[in-house]
């Protein structure tokens, strides 16, 4: 029987990669933002809200506000910048995807339905928009840390938000289509392959939930909403949790395979 990898081994492998460090910092950053949001929210009247209000009262005391709040604000701000720096040159990933569409490495069969062809073309569009989004993200980051002029950061940020929002919409559409396809396959497969397809469906559902969190987060900026900081604090936190969970399981499976082969 294989011994499951230790938590330390998985975490060590995760933090070696930029994605792992990014998602770890994201969870901490938005957990801090949730605490800051709870400090400013109004006292709720519902039963569940009152239970949450107990936590709110604990973090609103003078000692917490004077000692911890300034550090939390500094942490969330610095972690945001750090994550942007970690993701510099991330445009190489969507560029590679776009190149696969261009060279024909990602091609669609002639027997595909018209809708499958549409999803394929949307995938190419998504790769292109993702490439542009990452470039404008980099411009915003470089402007924010004073390598480029501050005016470039102000110019690049709203463009980056719009590009990301359209990418999220395309990601949701593609994932919903894949879930529909997977459900069709599950109805036809035999019992031996059922578990494999159910596992794939599970990860598609996790991805869809993550994209919906991104949709809430980015949509708040895209539509210029200002009604509650909690929308982005909560959606950013849960998006980070879901992304971290996917990366964790991926590294866990890799270590299991390495253990099995040795």
From TrEMBL:
Q: Which GO terms describe its biological process?
A: peroxisome fission
Q: Which InterPro entries match?
A: PEX11
User: What's one GO-annotated cellular component?
Assistant: peroxisomal membrane
Q: Where in the cell is it found?
A: Peroxisome membrane
Q: Which residues form the signal peptide?
A: none
The UniProt keyword set, sorted, is: Membrane, Peroxisome, Peroxisome biogenesis
UniProt entry tagged with the keyword Membrane: yes
TM ranges: none
Q: What is this protein called?
A: 27573_t:CDS:1
């Amino acid at each position: 029987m294989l011994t499951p990898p230790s938590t330390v081994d998985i975490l060590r492998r995760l933090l070696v990669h930029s994605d792992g460090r990014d998602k770890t910092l994201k969870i901490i950053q938005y957990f801090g933002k949730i605490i800051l949001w709870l400090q400013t929210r109004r006292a709720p009247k519902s039963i569940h809200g009152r239970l949450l209000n107990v936590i709110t009262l604990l973090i609103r005391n003078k000692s917490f506000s004077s000692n911890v709040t300034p550090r939390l604000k500094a942490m969330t701000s610095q972690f945001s910048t750090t994550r942007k720096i970690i993701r510099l040159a991330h445009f190489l990933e969507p560029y590679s995807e776009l190149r696969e569409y261009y060279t024909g490495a990602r091609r669609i069969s002639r027997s595909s339905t018209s809708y499958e062809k549409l999803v394929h073309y949307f995938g190419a569009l998504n790769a292109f928009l993702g490439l542009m989004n990452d470039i404008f993200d980099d411009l915003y980051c470089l402007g924010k840390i004073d390598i480029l002029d501050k005016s470039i950061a102000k110019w690049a940020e709203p463009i980056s938000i719009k590009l990301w929002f359209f990418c999220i919409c395309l990601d949701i559409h593609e994932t919903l289509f894949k879930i529909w396809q997977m459900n069709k396959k599950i109805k036809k497969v035999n019992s031996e392959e059922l578990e494999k397809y159910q596992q794939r469906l599970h990860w598609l559902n996790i991805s869809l939930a993550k994209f919906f969190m991104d949709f809430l987060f980015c949509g708040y900026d895209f539509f210029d909403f200002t009604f509650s900081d909690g929308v982005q604090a909560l959606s950013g936190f849960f998006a980070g949790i879901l992304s971290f969970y996917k990366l964790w399981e991926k590294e866990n499976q890799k270590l299991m395979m390495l253990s099995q082969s040795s």
